[in-house]
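Work package 3, deliverable 3.1, input record:
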Amino acid sequence: MKKISITEKTKVKRLPKRGIYDFESIVKILDDSFVCHIGFVIDDQPFVIPTCYGRKKDKIYFHGYVGSRMLRHLKTDSGICVTVTNVEGIVLARSAFHHSINYRSVVIFGKADEITDPVEKTNALKIISEQILTGRWNDVRKPNEKELKQTSVFSIKLDEASAKVREGGPVDEDNDMGLNIWAGVLPLETVAKLPVKDKALKKDISMPEYIKEYKKRG
Amino acid sequence: MKKISITEKTKVKRLPKRGIYDFESIVKILDDSFVCHIGFVIDDQPFVIPTCYGRKKDKIYFHGYVGSRMLRHLKTDSGICVTVTNVEGIVLARSAFHHSINYRSVVIFGKADEITDPVEKTNALKIISEQILTGRWNDVRKPNEKELKQTSVFSIKLDEASAKVREGGPVDEDNDMGLNIWAGVLPLETVAKLPVKDKALKKDISMPEYIKEYKKRG
């Protein structure tokens, strides 16, 4: 099993038993979502911006408008932090103190590499698209030269990364076990509701199976 | 309507029509979630850590273990960024380029103020608890002195904040409207699944209504 090296930044300090450093576990968490939060610093001020991503092999890909503050900043080769968080339940203990959240999260540190070659860029956009909705890319009109020029695409390697996972039921103090308080877990799940077709949708276009059968990642 | 002043940091630059700066709209988005991502900087390196929060009046409250890296760092009075993102749907356009995500997000900049008074601290913990699961606080065993000492609680004011919202269907190029491609929105929603009771739950404790009738914020 591929291990990712543990560094001072990625080592889980609070509740270290929740720390996970093997590549397969990290990838599984990343593959169950498509929205990350990217942290970057301009003049000592941190910014945290949500964006979509796709994962392939040992890289995360993300994109945006070429003129966006974040993507312009990433060209300066400064260190960033990419965090993915899957919230999976509310842990209800007998004491307020032992309440918790069940979650699986990944934190990645590194520098973002810009992808400029049009073929590689298009491939990266396909990876992002397929992460959000597998099967969609084949159906749609692909990016043209003008659209590619308006889009910046970056990747970050899963070199310095760690995961943190909390699962299972509440852990209460022995003294509290006799209290008449309901305890357990309220699991949360993100689901798709009925698709809403575009008002201008042409007649006789049926809904693709990959939309009908969508299972949310995360 | 209370307006929050627009600063260079909070001004929405990319797609400015998506920018929202009034207090009520920002609060509505914050009240529909309970997980934020906090960005902070140590030695030029950004960190992005997910955590729970509660909102009351013009403040966000969050807490954690007193020894955690993040909370220890917040005592240094450095600038942070708190981001809340509610993902609400996948926008399926006819071209890859015009695919998008429907979302409502808030970004807050500022410094975190530590709350040390035990009564204020307990009130802040109640605000966080009630944001996660309204009705829970009344039922549970409240924090004792030892537990309060193990917990750091911070607030951040909604002084420098903005929201960004994308809603509605796809916006395609005129040239693409004739393509035989299904277009529309796949709405996403986070829902509660059946609660799982603790294995050690005493008999004859019925599940409270606020758990049965839980509606996820966000």
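Chain A touches chain B through 95 residues (CB under 8 Å).
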